[in-house]
TrEMBL record, chain B:
<keyword id="KW-0547">Nucleotide-binding</keyword>
<dbReference type="Pfam" id="PF00005">
    <property type="entry name" value="ABC_tran"/>
</dbReference>
<keyword id="KW-0813">Transport</keyword>
<keyword id="KW-0067">ATP-binding</keyword>
<dbReference type="GO" id="GO:0005524">
    <property type="term" value="F:ATP binding"/>
</dbReference>
<dbReference type="InterPro" id="IPR003593">
    <property type="entry name" value="AAA+_ATPase"/>
</dbReference>
<protein>
    <submittedName>
        <fullName>Phosphonate ABC transporter ATP-binding protein</fullName>
    </submittedName>
</protein>
<dbReference type="GO" id="GO:0016887">
    <property type="term" value="F:ATP hydrolysis activity"/>
</dbReference>
<feature type="domain" description="ABC transporter">
    <location>
        <begin position="2"/>
        <end position="238"/>
    </location>
</feature>
<dbReference type="InterPro" id="IPR027417">
    <property type="entry name" value="P-loop_NTPase"/>
</dbReference>
<dbReference type="InterPro" id="IPR003439">
    <property type="entry name" value="ABC_transporter-like_ATP-bd"/>
</dbReference>
Amino acid sequence: MTYLHYIGTYFLMIVEMFRKPTKWSVMKQLILKDIDDLIIGSLGIVAFISFFVGGVVTIQTALNISNPLIPKYLVGFATRQSVILEFAPTFISIIMAGKVGSFITSSIGTMRVTEQIDALEVMGINSLNYLVFPKFVSLMLYPFVISIAMFLGILGGMAACVYGGFSSLEDYIIGIQTDFIPFHIIYAFIKTVVFAFVLATIPSYHGYYMKGGALEVGKASTTAFVWTAVVIILLNYFLTDMLLS
Amino acid sequence: MIEVKNLHKSFSGVEVLKGISTSFEKGKTNLIIGQSGSGKTVFIKCLLGLFNYEEGSISYDGKIFSKLTEDQKRNLRSEIGMVFQGGALFDSMTIAENVMFPLKMFTKQSKSEMEDRVDFVLKRVNLVDAHNKMPSEASGGMQKRVAIARAIVNNPKYLFCDEPNSGLDPKTSIIIDNLIQEITVEYNITTVINSHDMNSVMEIGEKIVFLKDGLKEWEGSKDTIFKTDNTAVTNFVYSSELMKKVRQMYIEEKQ
């Protein structure tokens, strides 16, 4: 019953988020600030992780191909498929659940603890629209982050492949072009948009409805990360089953 | 004027407010006092509409809050200024931006008009050259004054203050009390203050409501509180030796 109550509250929060919109001149500033905090602020870590994990995927694939009948370009092919289908949309989203999710929960949670949300409500402002909607809108730019992750993952794979001596640059480039299915990119971006919604709303829910003090803000951040990751993994399974099966 | 009739509020089956009826008059500083856990904060949050109550009614100048539509509630709330216990200033904004916030949200004023109004209210609360400071850089007294400035910037009809003196030294407390009283008279607003501070009770308590265990135990003013025989009130207000002496002096003076 408790879980049903939480789920119900979560969906009511989403409905409320779209009601009584905040004045556009104010909302515009909030969205720009959140784009800076959530999207631009995440590019560094996403670029770093993507490049090196792309390299690791390539090395692992190359080292596990011992059969001489398997063509060398398969390394590039496997890297591209891993990065586009799973690594960039899902793995990066889990990392973002930690980075962006805990930021959202702690910032909204601190506002709850210090009565700043009450102050908004007393002024007659829809605090959910004011706080959560800009995060939701700014995270709709998340596919941009994921496309950078895809590019850098494949680039990292290429660097590892060529400089590690696992195959030639030509083989790698042939590999990343082999059997390319454009729908895989669409599939990845559909997942990304869904995950962006989860990344904006679940941490906001845990921050907004938290009770207590500073210690509870920390606990709420941890809980938000766990639930965001769980929901992302479950949705990843269902979306993959629906879109690729 | 704010009128409260038979207000009941429970949390998980535990009744916190047990039928409070009172009224808060316009142009006066109305104080709600009582021990910790007596229901003061719950009462003030019910008045503000932050908590829903099970029974009773609250009316603002004849408008019953629970019967208002969402839009009407929002309009009414834009006429309310609130000073929270901790200030509740927005961390991500400067002091000037905090004060300007209600103007940005509810008026169509130009930027220069808003800046002029912010300058005016910050001067009114004796804060100059603090515009660009962040709330974290301001002292407790400054934060309270910024909170008061933010609460009055939009010319509210009703001003609520939750423990405005908590964490402040006696001198700053007097400054804040006097400021609230001056603003109440100057703007002819209905001010409701939730307080523990006996100095505030004696200085600015034009109407005092004493709560005990979720009930209104006593109602009066700073003058009648000296004469009351209600033991719950006297035990609370005159618990310190200093206050006992103050009362004794008052009685001797009257005799």
